[in-house]
Amino acid sequence: MNRNVITFSKNIFLPLTTVCRNRCEYCCFRTPVTEHCIMQPDDAERTLSRGAEKGCTEALFTFGERPEEEPGFKALINGTGYNSILQYCYALCKKSIKTDILPHTNAGILTAEELEYLKPVNASMGLMLETTAEIPAHRNSPGKIPEIRIEMIENAGILQIPFTTGLLLGIGETMQDREESLMVIRDLHKRYGHIQEVIIQNFCPKPGTPMCIRQEIGFDEMCVAIRIARDLLPDDVAIQVAPNLADAASLIPCGVNDLGGISPLTIDYVNPEHPWPGEDELRLSAGNYHLQERLCIYPRFIEKGWYSDELEPLIKRLVQQLSDRRHRHETT
Predict the structure, then answer these.
(1) pLDDT tens-digit profile of 29-73?
(2) Among 3, 50, 2, 8, which residue's Cα sits nearest to residue 241?
């Protein structure tokens, strides 16, 4: 991996539902079951079309974990014409592919069978490990049991799914916990070779949540965590920070080489108070590094053929488009 290059992807964020079985004490994304808790098919398709017009290459499909476990949700999802949120996600992934945007799904805990179901229509998938520590913030969240999350990341490796994971810093874990979490990710990647990037994300307090007055971590602590990640993780794993949540320009020298997905169209629904920077802002953050747009599936997984026949024509077309775009930029 070229350490003089800082990468990013251009995406659209589609929150298919805000209903979730977990009750994380830092989260403002989750809502109760109401008539507005599901993104309707027309809205999703409109977002896909507008994203394609703006040159987006990634559709980030996300939703609360196991929403069918919440009373009343099943009837609402059936009202959209689908039997489950996974079936709805699968259908929208296919529409995304037809719109020339690669799907990336982050749906919380999925079984091996569910991962296998979604794999043919996803260029990559993800699940934040967050932490291997058992912390009070997760006490009412069955999907945040570390062993369950580790098992899913491992199953993604077994299935050869290009995968994103990461840590959430400042939710009650220690620096030792962070190091242990990174070692778990390192070992899984050494076994299966499927981790594309590890996000080092700083927790941002949300009004109205039990952790709304918790102190955010500072730059020094963030930088130390990034340096530990860079030291522990293999060179082919990118270290990512969210440029709408942290000072990317200051953190890049600590070992960051990816700035994740930014959107010219949709907000960050998990952190709605933090707008995405534009490409010009990212370029300023990158400084003397070369800022380069990427797809949500990294080049080495394209070379390995870790994608379905259904995705192959679109991946090859988008690779060529990005190459042409870079060439035009370098010659102007």
Answers:
(1) 999 999 999 999 999 999 999 999 999 999 999 999 999 999 999
(2) 8
How far, CA to CA in Å, does 258 sit from each of 156, 164, 261? 22, 12, 9
| Four-point Cα dihedral 275, 98, 7, 30, nearest 10 | 40
Q: Residue 16 — φ and ψ, nearest 5°?
A: -70, -30
Domains annotated for the chain, with CATH where assigned, are 5-330 (3.20.20.70)
Q: What 3-state DSSP class applies to 310?
A: coil
3-state secondary structure of 13: strand
Q: Which helix (H) or strand (E) holds 260?
A: strand 258-262
101 neighbors 132 (Cβ within 8 angstroms): no
How many alpha carbons fall within 13 Å on the CB side of residue 44? Answer: 24
Please indicate, yes or no, whether the overall pTM of this predicted structure exceeds 0.85.
yes
User: What tokens were used for 255?
Assistant: 């070992």
- Strands 195-202 and 238-240, bridge-based pairing: parallel
With H, G, I as helix, E, B as strand and everything else as coil, classify residue 316.
Answer: helix
- Residues linked to residue 168 through DSSP beta bridges, in sequence order: 201
Long-range contacts of 97-101 (CB under 8 A, 24+ apart): 97/121, 97/310, 97/311, 97/314, 99/48, 99/49, 99/51, 99/52, 100/52, 100/314, 100/317, 100/318, 101/12, 101/48, 101/51, 101/52, 101/56, 101/57, 101/58, 101/59
- List pLDDT tens digits, range 254-267: 999 999 999 999 99
Backbone angles phi, psi at 237, to 5 degrees: -95, 125
To the nearest 10°, report the CA torsion of 126, 72, 207, 136: -60
Which H or E element spans position 95?
helix 85-98
The CA–CA distances, whole Å, from 263 to 9, 56, 259, 295 equal 9, 8, 12, 13
